[in-house]
Write a structure and sequence with these properties.
The chain has 584 residues and is mainly beta. Helices cover 4% and strands 41% of the residues. The protein is built from two helices and 46 strands. The strands form three sheets. It has a 30-stranded parallel beta sheet that branches. The protein has a 14-stranded parallel beta sheet with strand order 3-6-8-11-14-17-21-25-28-31-34-37-40-42. The relative contact order is 0.05.
Length: 584
């Protein structure tokens, strides 16, 4: 062959991408390598293709450091020997207390690479200053975890996982992945994410601890499950328990902590809710906390068809907006299409620490924060006589639409702190059966002269024997706030200090089927709450509490319009055209 032909052939061969290879690690004759690090080096030399490393369980993997730089690889454990064709379990990889990175650490800013970890248990690695006790994700990498347990690791930031999204790094957790019993000395007990990283949970449980060992109070002790700083997290799954569960933060955000324009989406569906449950924070936001005090952008949380339940914190047992931020808790699933037709979206059974008074057991909304509850049941928050279900402060906004606030403890459901300039709006909702022995007022407002905010209530059932709508907390007179009430059902013993427009007085059960057993639906087309209101002050934001998107006009005379008072629209059988759409 002529020299130029040989040269051309060598150039063409060099231009072809390397084929993906399979490397095996273990202690038998069929293995290609005797250590994980040697197999990773071989995969790096092989080129950018997605190589596979299989780990046999016939050797121990202790004090492992596994750097992955600018190449793609799958590390799959659970093989009995290197000759085995299929995995039958998991491989335990113990980390090291040396170094600044986790057991697996990615790097490299060019291209975009993949690291897939499957059938592994990463444990007992890290130290007080490490970033990511078991896994540090940096560079241009997409990392996927499938059937992986990350447990008993230690780090300064990210007890289990540290993710830096500077080069668009992303983390996907699929299959059954567990990030639990990891500890962060500073923040992010399970996962610590910064600089635009993305965390997707399609099949994972997060249960960890964030201690208060740092110097910055906006970072230290925050995010027991996950700390997000200008990051996005998505939690969803087709069924089973997927969520942030039993995490602890020394300060704020027992489950999730968001700051700096972060985003969180928790999405339940027909198979299961999204869970943010049984988490604890020492100060604010047992389930979720947002603190955008120093952030130029607003962090946002969307809780769709999800449960925020049994969380604990002094302020905001379920949800705590320290400063700024928007949280939306919404029933988006139509009637019969949710994982639970009645309990589709909840903020329930949240509480303060034992012996403490709950300053917003359900939620605390601080200055600049906004909480929207649509089609959400708010039940069982606060122990009897201790604290308040909702507590709002400064320029906070609390907006309820087609919500149920029932069977909560505490002194009364709604408490305004001093200097309130925001908005509390309750529309098309049901408030009933809350703690019975301290019914002085439904709304406690401050006595200062600087609280100029607005309280607006319409289309709502207030089934409580309160002495009055509003009671002033502390010494002094009512603040210069704006109070607007329209189209209400109120308890017959309700001695209101402000006369609502278009209200009707009723005794229990207020036209509902059986509120004593949690059934707040309207009983029949002849009860007064049916077809009593119009939409002059605003229509329902979406469907009613049962997920019904339509307005049902009952075959009876409309007092003011075709809208029903309370969280539910009465669902009636299809009527003849003559009796539909207001032509009674």
């Amino acid at each position: 062959m002529r020299p130029f032909v040989l040269l051309l052939a060598s150039l063409l061969f060099a231009a072809l991408p390397a084929r993906a290879a399979v490397f095996t690690v273990g202690g038998d004759a069929a293995c290609t390598h005797g250590s994980l690090l040697a197999a990773i080096s071989a995969a790096a030399i092989n080129g950018p293709a997605l190589d596979e490393i299989r780990l046999a369980n016939n050797i121990a993997y202790d004090s492992i450091i596994a750097p992955i730089a600018s190449h793609s690889v799958t590390v799959r454990g659970g093989y009995t020997t290197c000759a085995a064709a299929t995995a039958t379990g998991r491989t335990v990889i113990r980390g090291t207390t040396a170094g600044t990175s986790g057991t697996f650490a990615t790097s490299g800013a060019t291209g975009f690479h993949q690291l897939v970890l499957e059938n592994l248990e990463l444990r007992e690695g890290g130290n007080n200053t490490r970033r990511g006790g078991a896994l540090r994700i940096e560079g241009a990498f997409g990392v996927t975890l499938r059937n992986v347990t990350i447990t008993e690791n230690l780090a300064g930031r990210g007890g289990g996982i540290y993710l830096d999204g500077t080069n668009e790094a992303q983390l996907d957790m699929d299959g059954f992945t567990l990030v639990s019993s990891n500890v962060a000395r500073v923040g992010g007990g399970g996962i610590y994410c910064i600089n635009g990283g993305i965390v997707r949970m399609r099949g994972a449980i997060i249960a960890n601890t964030a201690e208060d060992g740092g110097s910055d109070p906006l970072e230290s002790g925050n995010g027991g499950g996950m700390a997000l700083y200008d990051c996005r997290s998505e939690q969803a799954g087709a069924g089973g328990f997927i969520g942030v569960f039993a995490n602890t933060a020394a300060r704020n955000g027992g489950g999730y902590y968001l700051r700096g324009g972060s985003e969180l989406v928790v999405d339940g569906n027909s198979g299961a809710p999204g869970y943010v449950t049984d988490n604890t924070a020492g100060e604010i936001g047992g389930g979720i906390a947002i603190d955008d005090t120093l952030a130029p952008r607003t962090s946002e949380v969307d809780l769709d068809n999800s449960y925020v339940e049994r969380n604990i914190a002094l302020r905001g047992g379920g949800i705590g907006l320290v400063s700024g931020g928007i949280v939306r808790s919404t029933r988006t699933a139509a009637a019969g299409a949710c994982h639970n037709e009645t309990y589709c979206s909840t903020l329930s059974d949240n509480a303060p620490p034992t012996g403490e008074i709950g300053l917003g057991c359900g939620a605390y909304v601080g200055p600049g924060g906004e909480l929207r509850l649509r089609g959400t049941r708010v039940e069982g928050n606060c122990p009897a006589g201790s604290g308040w279900t909702f507590r709002i402060k400064g320029s906070a906004r609390l907006l309820l639409d087609s919500a149920i606030v029932a069977d909560n403890g505490g002194a009364n459901p709604f408490f305004f702190e001093s200097n309130f300039t925001g908005l509390l709006e309750i529309a098309w909702s049901t408030v009933t059966r809350n703690f019975a022995s301290l019914h002085t007022g439904m709304f406690t407002v401050p006595s200062d002269g600087t609280s100029s905010g607005t309280l607006r209530v319409y289309g709502t059932i207030l089934g409580e024997p309160f002495q009055q709508f509003v009671v002033v907390g502390g010494f002094g007179g009512p603040p210069p706030m704006t109070f607007t009430y329209d189209c209400l059902v109120v308890d017959s013993n309700f001695a209101s200090s402000v006369n609502p427009t278009r209200s009707v007085s009723m005794a229990p059960p207020y036209g509902m089927v059986a509120p004593a057993t949690g059934n707040y639906r309207l009983a029949s087309g002849t009860s007064l709450p049916v077809d009593w209101c119009d939409a002059s002050l605003g229509a329902r934001a979406g469907g009613d509490a049962g997920g019904n998107p339509a307005i049902y006009d009952a075959p009876r005379f409309n007092q003011f319009g075709e809208r029903d008072i309370g969280a539910y629209e009465l669902v009636v059988a299809a009527a003849p055209p003559l009796f539909a759409n207001g032509f009674e």
